[in-house]
Amino acid sequence: MRLRTGAALAVLAAALAASVIAGLALGPVRIAPDRVLDIVLGGLTGNRPTGAFASIVWDVRMPRILLGAVVGAGLAVAGTVLQALVRNQLADPFLLGASSGASAGAVLVIVFGTAAAGFGMGVPLAAFTGSMAALVAVYAMARRGGTMTTGRLILAGVAVQYILSAFTSLVLVLAAHPDQIRSVLFWTLGGLGGARWEELALPTLALLAGGALLLALARPLDLLLAGEEGAHTLGLDTGRFRAAVFVLTSLVIGVLVACSGAIGFVGLMVPHAARMAVGAGHRALLPVAALGGAVFLILADLIARTAAAPEEIPVGVVTALIGGPFFLWMLRRSSRTEGVTG
Fold first, then answer.
1. What does 13-39 look like in DSSP terms, one character per residue?
2. CA 77 to CA 259: how far, in whole Å?
């Protein structure tokens, strides 16, 4: 298993490097890969080249790609953890309403709380609060009689998403300025186009700190796979553990969505693929999912930038077009052993 995990991490690291180079080279203005490497290596050694190509690589594309890697990794890790917490492989930050809740909280501050947003932490805090509230609501509605089924989990997530979507639409109607309307649409569709170097510190810190804490909790997450009674027998206080991890996961999701908007299905597809590669043990699963999520979102953003150039498609649309059919396939597979209404 260690060899398998090491091989998976090596392949994904190579794929991440290749996707970064492709993201830097391709776009409305194409730059030769060798030129990209010269620019990047020059910048890393303190001899940053000058000129239009260097400006495109360092000031426009590099922060966007790094944000995509951080957000993709974070959403994949969050999805992996949520699937363990609710013991359902259809769980996902977007499908469970966490991303929509974070968006709704951020939009509320953007439109009606300009003063709070101006302090820098208003939007992330509102996004965290919205994410946490949505997750708690979905979990409470889906868990009935001490059990949780796929059907109730999906229906609860859909219900919360509809409510949050209606709320966001209401905020859009009440928005007084065109720039506020554009911001609301950004949160609804997701996008990495607004990435700036100075805005990378907070999501990177959230990913590194949250990912490290979740990796330290790999064994308790594994115990949850044994079921509620099995985990309790093995000494895990499942109620307190779930509550604490829900808060931590919501914090990570809230910070990421505050920087990228609601991007769906990353946390559904990537953990499933990672589980097929290295199994269900979270000590190996979490880092593999993180690298896979980074690669996936960088490539999805590359498609968003180039598919309809010079126009740009929101990256959330691309992930939904890929993730929607995948979700239907997963739902069809799970419905063989469980009715949709649970």
1. HHHHHHHHHHHHH-SSS---HHHHHHH
2. 17
